[in-house]
Amino acid sequence: MPETIKLDATQTTDIEKAASLLLAGHLVAMPTETVYGLAADASNEQAVRKVFEAKQRPVGHPLIVHVASPERIRYWVDRVPEAAEKLINTFWPGPLTLLLPKKSDVSDFITGGNPGVAVRMPAHPATVATMEKLGRDLVAPSANPYGRISPTTAEHVLGGLSGKIAAVLDGGDCSVGIESTIVDLTGETPVIARPGQISQSDIEACLGITLAPGKGASQVVPGSVKRHYQPVTPTVGVATDQFARLLPEITPSGERIGVIWWQSAPGELASESIMLSADPNEYSRMLYTAMHSMDQANVDRIVIELPPRESRWLAVHDRLGRACTEQFG
Ligand code: TXA
Ligand code: MG
């Protein structure tokens, strides 16, 4: 494949170029408010196949269909429950994916053979404009090689997929920084299948109900494997309340340690360090960027100071639980 080209999301001609590449069945990485997505024309099975090849993602892992307007979900979804309407009116465009009963003709390639199809309207204007120009919907998993950290900049995308995709549309840094919340609406009661910035309490407030966390999941989200979102460098997490005590204990002398912290400055034990915010949204926005840069920093081990075990940190803990091979404290 020829070299991956970088397109500029602020240029109308580049948005048109992205749309024409997609129409021709090529892969284009697109900015969203959560993470960059690896987009293909959802109506072109050959193009959808290329997504699995480029990411080296096992076939059978289903893909989210991205739409430019709520009306377009009727091409994918068999029936729109009232809860879905409420959530769409409140949160779209935005970092919320809905799992809904699929229309019978939706390809198993997209749903992994599941009875539900995942749909979302992203908030990045350039991606919405590209889909409008294309007049079709896009499948878009995160634009990282399978198992690796999701990209939050165009440079991250190129670092993982350069030469394997036709283009990346550079729309700047992602504002949310972690993947969308997934709400499964195919069962009797709504279930959060993947936590994200839109929290359980946001969803409960919108629907006027209380959700039973983790109970009654009508489907397992297949991409939610334990090891996921991992840096290449071995990565461990350490509880914040024991960080100062445990950091020297778990640091073999002579090892170069890269520390990602938010409260407990690591001092001289760290060869490299990156400080993140004490605010969960701000922390999420920078988390993958920090992991990507630590992965490039030539350290032997990455140590992450874990945030408190509080519900507002749930999505962050979900991602850190997958990124870290081990947690201490
Ligand atoms: O924020 C996001 O959701 C990003 C951006 C690019 O939109 N996309 C993303 O896609 O995170 P991906 O493929 O990396 O993760 C999607 C998750 C996977 O765990 C997948 O198994 C699940 O959604 N999923 C998608 N379609 C599904 C379906 N029909 N049934 C069950 N799970 C599904
Ligand atoms: Mg992903």
From TrEMBL:
GO terms for molecular function: ATP binding; double-stranded RNA binding; L-threonylcarbamoyladenylate synthase; tRNA binding. Its EC number is 2.7.7.87. ATP binds at R57, S150, R194, Y229. Residues 12-198 form the YrdC-like domain. It catalyses: L-threonine + hydrogencarbonate + ATP = L-threonylcarbamoyladenylate + diphosphate + H2O. PROSITE patterns: YRDC. GO terms for cellular component: cytoplasm. Keywords: ATP-binding, Cytoplasm, Nucleotide-binding, Nucleotidyltransferase, Transferase, tRNA processing. It is found in: Cytoplasm. This is Threonylcarbamoyl-AMP synthase. One of its GO terms (biological process) is tRNA processing. It comes from the Bacteria. Belongs to the SUA5 family. Pfam families: Sua5_C, Sua5_yciO_yrdC. Required for the formation of a threonylcarbamoyl group on adenosine at position 37 (t(6)A37) in tRNAs that read codons beginning with adenine. It is an enzyme of class 2 (transferase). L-threonine binds at T34, H66, R120, A140, S142, S180.
